[in-house]
Amino acid sequence: MTKSAAPKRHLPTSPFKAPVPPPLKQFAVGDQVTHDMxxxxxxxxxxxxxxxxVDFGSAERRILSPYAKMTKL
Length: 73
Description:
The chain is mostly beta strands. The chain is 0% helix and 36% strand. A five-stranded antiparallel sheet has the order 4-3-2-1-5, with no helix packed on it. The radius of gyration is 16 Å and the shape is elongated. The N and C termini lie far apart (36 Å).
């Protein structure tokens, strides 16, 4: 069985608190980052809330938000 990609909705009658979404990652030009697939790189451009352009040395990639596989070093 596979898990659904859509988050479960919170029912107003539930005795449990609604889950808090994690904060969005923010990157700035010049930040050094690591990506699970591409490795180490440096942010060369930012499209606020949409994507970040990262130079990984061998290639420049446009990584789309929510940046699940990318972290700031």
